[in-house]
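@channel anyone free to eyeball this complex?
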Amino acid sequence: AQTVTQSQPEMSVQEAETVTLSCTYDTSESDYYLFWYKQPPSRQMILVIRQEAYKQQNATENRFSVNFQKAAKSFSLKISDSQLGDAAMYFCAYRNYGGSQGNLIFGKGTKLSVKP
Amino acid sequence: DTEVTQTPKHLVMGMTNKKSLKCEQHMGHRAMYWYKQKAKKPPELMFVYSYEKLSINESVPSRFSPECPNSSLLNLHLHALQPEDSALYLCASSPGRGGVTEAFFGQGTRLTVV
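replying in thread with the prediction:
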């Protein structure tokens, strides 16, 4: 069975600074997808960034980028120029290739605080 | 329209009550999902509907009964719940299977069982 591990329950960053959230996963599959979701106090899960395992290039979305290390089964999220609105719970998630898009395995989450 | 709408936003029910949670999407998605999320925990998958048929039931107790009347609507019927069933119930939808397209989530229903 696949598992996702987020080893940082809480992180804090100063506004405008950079922070990196860690995620490791375990799978025997060679093709899969990885995601970072953000859950603010509004409770809605919002996709931040996605990565296809067969792509070597790290995904980037504006201030958000990932460091995907397939051999190490590591998928960290870097947030640059942190903003107050980035404060939220961040979940790393895994999905098998070909599976239903909502059949996600989540890590336990990292609560990110942003200090003004 | 990229919204998944869940009603009600909050629900308090007694252990002998029967209530229903509703989820609606108009994105033409053919897969819909129910997740349960306890406080300070990640969401856990409960049910998956694909093309209006139940495809995954993650060993959920029978006091939770899902229903998919049509491709836009997903219900979760609740009966004889226990206080430990209090949680945030999230609905999500997605186009179907395969590809990197993500699932879209609603804002959830906060359920309290008293």
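from a first look: The radius of gyration of chain B is 13 Å.
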